[in-house]
# Entry
Amino acid sequence: MVDVLVGLQWGDEGKGKIVDVLAPRYQIVARFQGGPNAGHTLEFNGHKHVLHQIPSGIFRENVLNVIGNGVVLDPVILRQEIDKLAAIGVDATRNLVISKRAQLILPSHKLVDKASEESLGDDKIGSTLKGIGPTYQDKTGRVGLRVGDILLPDFDQRYREAVARHRALIAFHGATIDEAQLHLLEEAFFSATDFLRTLRLADTELLLNDAITDGKRILAEGAQGSLLDVDFGTYPFVTSSTTLSAGACTGLGVAPRRIADVIGVFKAYCTRVGSGPFPTELHGDEGERLRRLGHEFGSTTGRPRRCGWLDLPLLRYAAMLNGVSELCMMKADVLDEFATVPVCTAHPVESGAALTFAEQPGWLHTTRDIDTFSALPEPLQAYTKFIENATALPISIVSVGPDRRSTLLVK
# Structure
């Protein structure tokens, strides 16, 4: 059976931490979409770790980690991740498998990404400039290169043909390639693809379905968030992949009837990085206070995140699209210092009308050292129950800090 874990906001919800905590319950953790624009942060034993492409079960010795076919893979960043893990004594190569069908992010994809974003001017999407969008465009255009292609004798020729197409795209956007920059990027890329050939590359759809047949438990790990989904997110300010639970089927090659539970992760408030709608965004001191208390800066780009109150209509919408069976509420401790916690309960039908908020009492109590849900301040328990009633879904985990130990089981 396969459980799917997804974010229910605009990403950065804390999915990596929950995957790390839940991983010992599973034999396999598999990433099913996105690329190095994701930043999954894990913290334990006094150290913080940020993963971009490697699944968040990598720190669990008995868990196999799979990079699925729905992921777009940057070999350079993958090698850097593996080297960083090796420096702290974690050999990622021992339990990592990569789909041969995963799309490769080429150096020229990053240059196309930059030229495309700059051509939009004030209407820019807020891309991380990691080459994600252009790689997915090549995938749907059926001209992309895949991980398995590096094993072919004509890979270099295929690569040159791809770069030629990208040169034309860059010219279309009114820009020119910086040849010196491209040369440096290519040196790192070809060195990384040599390293990639030494890793375990496989038809992971077969591996995963054999595991299901054998009765093994799989946790499918999503990246970004539901409100960035290419179909149902705040289009066009979205990512380039299907971030919903349905993406686990196409991103891993497992049938819908193999999906069991869907775990939805959300923050006790809201954030987003980049451009696009954000109904409950705070622009004044309270927004800055949330950002400071929550250390809300992108784990991939370092960009300050926009901050606002929890949006229940959007949370219900995301839960509906994903078929969520249980919720995990993250970063409740960030609200420890607020006397009241507003929650958006309705979006007005009339254009320009104000949002409807319900003021919830704050708890004004430090929660980071609390290790059981029942010991949390009563107003925080009530806040949890308020969200459960509003979504008709159980909250199974409340996180009150970045460390593994600050992960409280509700039931």
